[in-house]
Amino acid sequence: MSNKLPYEGRAVRTQCGTASLSVSLATGAAAFVAVTFPARFATVPKVVTSLSSGASGTASLVPRALSKTETGFNCYVYNVGTATATASVSVDWIATV
Length: 97
Fold this sequence. Notes:
Mean pLDDT: 89
Helix content: under 10%
Number of strands: 6
Structural class: mainly beta
Shape: elongated
Largest sheet: 3 strands, antiparallel
Order of helices and strands: EEEEEE
Number of helices: 0
């Protein structure tokens, strides 16, 4: 059995994970958490985010990946609704080059 990581010695093409945030956002407000990739990409990847869990009332929250680099990104959650949204949410992400 090898102690090597599955991508060791090869170019990393795709990674995924989950970011968690606790937010209380007024209409139009945003919060973010910095995400670090498990392994560095050779170039800046494309990153897709999706709200994967949250309490009722989180339908107005929209996740977005900004400030992408080879080592990570900022995962923002925006409140696009008409009322304050307070919740702990999980955002799934996938990054690929």
